[in-house]
Each structure stands twice: as C-alpha cells, then as structure tokens.
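Researcher: Here's the sequence for the chain we discussed earlier.
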Amino acid sequence: MDTVKSIVVKTLLRVLSWIPLPLLHRLAAMIGALVYALPTETRRVTLINLQRAMPELSDNERRRLARRSVQETIKAGFELGHMWYGSVDSVMSLIKGIQGKEHIDQALASGRSIIYCSPHLGSWELMGLYVSTLAPLTTLYKPPKIPGLNDLIAGSRARAGAELVATDRAGVVKLTRALQQGASTGILPDQQPREGGVFAPFFGHQAYTMALVSKLAARTNAVVLFTFAKRLPAGAGFELICMPADPDIANNDTVLAASALNRSVEACVRLAPEQYQWEYKRFRKRPADESERFY
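Model: Thanks. This is the structure I predict for it:
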C-alpha cells in the first residue's frame, strides 16, 4: 500500500512541477476555497487558533483570514513539485528579493555558525534550500510516513550540499558538533516537541515550546536568524525575509529563552499572517494546572 501511495504522490507532484507557478497558485486558491467551505478539521482548527491568537479581529475579518490561510496552505503543498523536482537554479530563480540580507551577510562574515529558524510560514522548503547554498548546512531530518518518498525528499533537501542527520540524540550530537565547527543549520522553531520543551507565551497563550534552539545557541555561540520565504501575489515568486532573533534567545533561563523564540516567530507571522499554517494544533498540550481545552 505504501508503494502505491508513494507512486501516486510522486506522480502528482511531478505533474504539479510542470504547471507554471501563477497557474498553480490560482488552482490552489480555488481548491483552498472549496476546502474552507466544507466542515473540515482544517477549517475548525484554523478558526479556533485565529480566535485565540488574534482576538482583536472581527468575526468577518477572522473568517476571511482563515479562508486565505487554507488557500495558502494548499499553495504550499502544490509548490512541493517545484521545490523537490526542480533544479537548484530553477528554484532559486523564484526568489525575487531578499529583505534583511545584511543580517545573513554579517553572520557569515563573522565566522560564527548560523541557526536559521524558519517557522511554518510561506515556503520553508525554499528557505531551506536557499540557505544550503550559502555555506555548509547540517539539518535534522525525520523520514516521511510514506517510506517511498524518503529518497525524493531527502535527496531534494541535500542537493545543494546540506547534510541530513536523524532527529534523535545521536543526530543532535552531530548537529551540535557541526555548529561548533562552523557549519549552520535550519530548524522549524514552532513545532511542538515531544519532550524537553517548556511552556512559554505564544500569541498570548501558553504553548509547549522547544528548548533546542536556545540550547544550541548557548553551547555553540551561533547567530540565530529568523527567516521565511513570503509568497508574492499572482504567483510572481517569493521574497525572502530575514531578521535577528530576540536578544534573549540564548538566555540561560529556558522559559525566558523560549519566550524570546516565540516572540521572534510572532514577529515573522505578523508580516504575513495569511501564510502561516494555522491549522497546526500548536496549543494541543496544556500546562498541568490549566483546565482549559483548546481543541
């Protein structure tokens, strides 16, 4: 069954990779509108998260933002054909500008390693491929649930020279060693960790937050930058956004450091809230002394 699934997914992505980006985005927007119109789990969770994170919006504003968020998420999925099957040059040609490039240049010139934190915002696959072209990159990698897709995904992420290591203790040790030796890494900072995290505010609510970024920054003296690839209107391509992390990102107090990480994620999200993956159950795990349920 997994073999059949992988063949179907690869075939679909290959076909999508042949469709020009403007047309692909229009198609994704139509499908996203249909998905939002149905009583799906995606719609339900998106609306709940937006109600919690942006209470200042009216009901109509929140529904419009939720609809656009679902459409942008479909675009992100459809783009994977271009990201995984396209050549490095063809993918890089989709980048139409880089805001905050000076922060990357300064970090590279300093000789220190860099931790690129890219939230589930815009196209994180594009962002990861771009930074792997700048300097040696070592990243954590978890094989997909469909084993037959592993070669495609791992191969595409490594094709510009990135080294992938397992998402276990041995992998973290390798990653730490690589950072200490001057390599860089890319991390999705808004994932809820299985363990080793702490609760910290995220859009006004406690969220179980990874401590990995802060620990790596403290141990390796790495520069932490928050980056994302913002999708431009009408399939025109992407603008890369880069900003320094909150100054407390490497604080020895893990809660202060996690709060700094979440503030940095929020700063990115507020630049393009419709492109954030609001259907992710970011608040699923609750503090032991909290009875409120989010989902």
